[in-house]
Each structure stands twice: as structure tokens, then as C-alpha cells.
Amino acid sequence: MRHTHIHLTIFSRIIIFICGILLIAVLFVPLWQIELNAPQYPEGLVLKLYPNKIGGNVEIINGLNHYIGMKTLHTEDFFEFTILPYIIVFFALLCFLVGLLKKRKWLFILFILYTTFGVIAMFDFWRWEYNYGHNLSPDAAIVVPGMSYQPPLIGYKQLLNFAAYSIPDIGGFLFIGVGLLLLIVLFFAYFEKKKNKSIRPIAASTIAILFFFTSCSSQPKPFKIGEDACSYCKMTISDNRFGGQIITQKGKAYKFDDTHCLLAFEKENSILLKDVKEIYLINFLEPHNFIPAQKAFILYSKELQTPMGGHAAAYTSSEALQKDLQQLNGKMIAWNDLVMIP
């Protein structure tokens, strides 16, 4: 029992006080946002979820959703907006109280309550999205049999001609950050009595792992042959040995059946350079795998028949493409060289 009365260090208490201040800030900024992009709305439509209200392009989104039978969104229809500000204030005050009490056991209680609430909140958000996207009016002007319109819990999802992105907003990132800070402080508090320097590399590893999970890069999505369409030429993808994907900062994947289409998509400014996170090319020898474009060894030959006349295939190494290079009248080039070919 004596371990539960270990006092927190001044540094740990300062971090906990900062967590309380960050939670107070959460009350004044949006927690989450759902962004909808479509050709008819090039600037996008945004639904912002604050602790106490719905904001953004609510009326426009309600008007569009009416045609497909979805319920209109109104702040007063959600009891969560009534109690959420009080819950956030409760955790902010609890942070201040833990900092004043200086006891490790109270920090542990705070962390357990906080993470439990986070899990419950995300489940409640998923439940709302499910009901919102599945409970459709049968009298809607547009009815697509078997179609549901549930937005993604987090990440990207295609809903008819709309690309939907669901990501934390400022308040959401602050809320997540508070949880990570509390975890780190709890980690140090638990091992503090031992005063063991070997804890330092373990703590560093823990922080690195947390950073990895919050900043890991998006990966290319598998091609569905005969179903997916090229994002540039709109042709159904029937040959998965060529082409590639552009992954955006928000995780959306643009799929192409040929390097010609991928490059044309870029050159026509269909996507801004700042929005591109990574470009991948298909591994010609292993079509289910992808290679980062900048690391690919590319065989370029007019004799190489590709779906849209790109005449290029990607390999993982120069040795891998030598056999095909000997059979075709072509050359080995890098991605930057391929970009310059007219």
C-alpha cells in the first residue's frame, strides 16, 4: 500500500497542470471534422464537431443528404453536446486536483478514467455514424439498393461521388495529446522510486513508439482488378502490372492503370503538390506489391505494351530488370527521368 503514496515530482505535476489547461482549451475549438470532396464542390464541404455544437457547412450537407434519405443534423438532437463540455471540465479539474494532491495513485485513477472515456466516446461516435449512414428514408429521391453512407470513423472512404475524410481537429489532437502526456508521466511515476537509469532508454522507446503510431505514413491500397477505375482516364483497371498510386496527406489513394495516366494527372494539377504524401509504382514482377517512385528502377521501352502508352515498368533493383531489358530495345531510368519524358 505504501507505493500508492509516492509523491509526484515537480516536473510531473507541471505536465499534469498543463494537461488541465489544454483540456480547458478544448472547450473552444472543434474536436473532429468530416470533410466531403466532390467535383461539384472543389473547395470541399466540412462538418465540424465542437464539444457543444455542430459547425461548418451544415445546411448545405443537410440539403444534399435529404436527397439520399439521410437525417438532417441539428445540435439539439444530440444529448452528447449537452454533457460533453461538463465531462471535459471534470477532467480538467481532476488534472489540477491530481497536481495538487501529488499522489501517484490519483494519477493512475485519472489515466484510467480518461482512457475509458476516450474509448466510450469513440464507440459512441461510431454508433452515431452507423445510424446516420444506415437509417435511410425509403421515400428518398435517390435510392441505391444495398448502399449505406456511413462516414469513416477515421481516415478516408468513398461515398458515391463524394470522398469523405474523418480526422481529428484541433481539439481532438489536444485531447489525444493529453492522453499521451498522462501516459508518459504515469510511466515515469511508476518507476521513479527505483531511481534506475536503465529506465531512460525504455522511456525513450515508449515515446518513439507513440510517435510512430501517431505519424505513420499511409500505405497504397490493393487494386481490385475489373472493379477499380483509373483516376485519370476512368478506364477499368484490367492489368495490374503497370501504373501506381498517389497517396494524399489525408490518406486518399488515387489509382492509375499506367504511369502515363499518373503523370498526366499530376501535370494537369488535378492534385496540389503539397497535398501529395507519397507516390508508389507497381512492382512489375510482383504486381501485388508497390515501390516508392523515387526508389524504383524503371524500364522504359517503346516496345513495352502498357494500357495507356506509358511504356514503363517498375522494378525493385537494376538486377531485377536486366532480363527484360535484354529482350526489349529500351533503357533503365529513374522516376525523375520518366517525369521529364514528354
- One letter per element, helices H and strands E, the order comes to HEEEHHHEEHHEEHEEEEHEH
Rg from alpha-carbon coordinates: 26 Å
**Tally the helices: what do you get?**
9
Ranges where pLDDT stays below 50 over 5 or more residues in a row are: 212-217
Q: Round the mean pLDDT to the nearest integer and report it.
A: 83
- Sheet-strand content, in percent, reads 15-25%
End-to-end distance: 75 Å
Q: Describe the biggest sheet? A: 5 strands, antiparallel
How many structural domains does the protein architecture include? 2
The strand order across the widest sheet is 3-2-1-5-4
Number of strands: 12
Helix content: 40-55%
Classify the secondary structure makeup into a structural class.
alpha+beta
Description:
It is a single chain. Helix 1 runs antiparallel to helix 3 and helix 3 runs antiparallel to helix 4. About 2% of the residues have low confidence. It contains nine helices and twelve strands. The chain is an alpha+beta fold and 342 residues long. The strands form three sheets. Strands 3-2-1-5-4 form a five-stranded antiparallel beta sheet.
